[in-house]
Amino acid sequence: MSQALRFALGQKDIPTHWYNMLADLPEPMPPPLHPGTKQPVTLQDMTAIFPENIVMQEMSPERNIEIPEEVRDIYALWRPTPLLRAVRLEKALNTPAHIYYKYEGVSPAGSHKPNSAVAQAYYNKQAGVKRLVTETGAGQWGSSLALACRLFGLECTVYMVRISFTQKPYRKSLMQTWGANVFPSPSEHTEFGKRVLAQDSESPGSLGIAISEAIEDCVKSKNTKYALGSVLNHVCLHQTVIGQESIKQMEQAGEEPDVIIGCVGGGSNFAGIASPWVQRKLAGKKNYKIVAVEPTSCASMTKGELRYDFGDTAMTTPLMMMYTLGHDFIPPKIHAGGLRYHGMSPLVSHLYKLGLIDAVNMPQTRVFEAAVTFARSEGLVPAPEPSHAIAAVIDEAVKAREAGQKKVILFNLCGHGLLDLSSYDAYLAGKLTD
Amino acid sequence: MSQALRFALGQKDIPTHWYNMLADLPEPMPPPLHPGTKQPVTLQDMTAIFPENIVMQEMSPERNIEIPEEVRDIYALWRPTPLLRAVRLEKALNTPAHIYYKYEGVSPAGSHKPNSAVAQAYYNKQAGVKRLVTETGAGQWGSSLALACRLFGLECTVYMVRISFTQKPYRKSLMQTWGANVFPSPSEHTEFGKRVLAQDSESPGSLGIAISEAIEDCVKSKNTKYALGSVLNHVCLHQTVIGQESIKQMEQAGEEPDVIIGCVGGGSNFAGIASPWVQRKLAGKKNYKIVAVEPTSCASMTKGELRYDFGDTAMTTPLMMMYTLGHDFIPPKIHAGGLRYHGMSPLVSHLYKLGLIDAVNMPQTRVFEAAVTFARSEGLVPAPEPSHAIAAVIDEAVKAREAGQKKVILFNLCGHGLLDLSSYDAYLAGKLTD
Questions:
Q1: Residue among B320, B334, B106, B333 at smallest CA distance from B232
Q2: Whether residue B117 has pLDDT greater than 80
Q3: Could you tell me which of A117, A95, A114, A94 has the C-alpha nearest to residue A104?
Q4: What is the ipTM of this complex?
Q5: What pTM was estimated for this model as a whole?
Q6: Relative to the CA of B296, which of B324, B381, B387, B393 has its CA 20 to 30 Å away?
Q7: H helices present in A254-408, as ranges
Q8: Which fold has domain B6-13+68-110+234-428?
Q9: Given CB atoms, is A429 within the 8 Å cutoff of chain B?
Q10: A218: closest CA of chain B, how far (Å)
């Protein structure tokens, strides 16, 4: 009989509810503030860009929020995702640690992002919205929203940072295959884009510029709303299917994790795996060590400060209480495009402030060293983002070896790297720096 | 309660044996012949390039061949693969047909190819081989063998058709990430490659040239064997895990298929899904319609003839009784690189000759129309190869609608198209021809 390596669940095990971490916080989160009045934002403030049902969810105190059947039916295309035991990595590291990973790369877009994109498209459809508009850097979120809009019959417009549009064309092609309109940003489609192009017709663009274009497009158009792929409470909420499934699967494996690890950019995949475990920690089940891993070059928690800041460069969003490097911080062009964000989800920031989670940062070359170690032992090629988590996992596993201690480690492998292979090329050619 | 859309199995449901179709053929297959003597090849002939344990398997009359535990442990990384009901495609086609698909794209290489690559690497490792050498066109097979060699600690050398090496660099990067040596073919590493380059230093290469280089490298080197990714009996055998799982999963779904469909190039993914169903057909369970779908531009069964022919252009392989367009046929440069082969697996050829399976062909633009229809209704982006199967599925579903008939269709979605997005670009830009 083979060793148990794969912990699979059936369609009936897809969670029926999302878990709302806000319901169990020992101390409430500071509210987002209106940038003009500095007063807590109201439902009315938010409905300029989001439909009311999503804003209600963003502010909901309810612990368990039912997942609509239509959303679960689409989740069934890739969920429940597998939990795997990384025995070959354990062997390569010669560690007594047991390493488990939750693998979200089986979704059609190759990452965890569709967990929220599908939910957001559903609620916008319910609210009578006809078109969603968003921005994307390397394209993980844009492609996921393109997919979700297609499945619910919504139009989708994506402002994609121009340098990615040109240099990493595959995710653009993916969005177009799913029928989205993709504009390189800065574009001629918005006043803001035109202004940027007037100053520099060769502008490579930035996420900040793309957000501004997407929001301008949204507020100027009829039946159109904006969608965000991370940071906000409702996005973190939708991702909790990851953590809930992982609890069932670790029970199947017959082990309790000691350490739970995820990478953080805006924070949604991390919140997704961590929240249900934080709930158990708060309930006294076990004092799990829960670690968020950020890039050294864009380390909002370990190098930034906790204060009210804007979510975007153009200062159009509400002020949020979060760890931030400053809304005008331009992150270096690391290959983990999904982690290039100046701030941190207010929820994840709050958990960190309360001491419920830890944070570390990892430099780019160590991240790719970890990625290649994982690919060459386990087989799956991880995306650059979760490779930050892998680097931290390896550290924990090596510590366990040195201490001669069995330790159970769980991490979220939130996406595969098949659309990021050019960054592996750069690493293998010795061209990557930190 | 949601509709049942996903039929999942656990690690314990990974088949324990491969199913050997040869054991149940109503009439034996004509043997491969030595190209010089025209006598049936012997074990000694074959062991020049394959290890003895694989040659034994190639010729085995045993019905059920045990899958080694080490191979099943690696299968557990992606197997059992899911069976899904394509309700959104059914709705898009307004058909009473029920459409099911077996999804092999969840493997680390994104296709069914690792099912055989892992088995071949295992047997070579057992035989004391240190290095495997192979050829690859677009790179599906090469990347799968690179992965498998890495997992068993073998070196891997891949001769990759130069035009793919240059134009489609992602699968090359994947092979290198897994540690393989990848040479653009024709190369300076073999006498044959040098000869081709002397005649044309800009040669784009071909699969025929790459095979010749790989075989030359193999026979000239110590502790080195050759591996093939399709066509041969043992490769078809390894792929039968697909069909066996699909039988269990259709039982879970509570339906018997009327029609079973797969694409064919060399024939291995088709043989993999079809063989276990052919066994049931021969046992009188049901008269399944089993359809192999080939590209119109490279249609060995529907346009070629059944005769002894070489497997490669350079006439170095044994003569095999198969449907062929001639070993010197140069297939047009269609985007389904995996189907660009002049011949057909002798096993699949034999099943066709015996009338146990049907064959149709599909032109490239219809294939991509089907691919986009599938991607936009179901969400998953199919590779160009299985999109041939999808085009045939759509035909069957439309016929069912016209006849007002419920029909149950099962097909093999043998890989995703995330490394083939440039061909989607070409199609969406109206640049594809038949």
A1: B320
A2: yes
A3: A114
A4: 0.96
A5: 0.97
A6: B381
A7: 268-282, 300-303, 346-353, 364-378, 384-403
A8: Rossmann fold (3.40.50)
A9: no
A10: 24
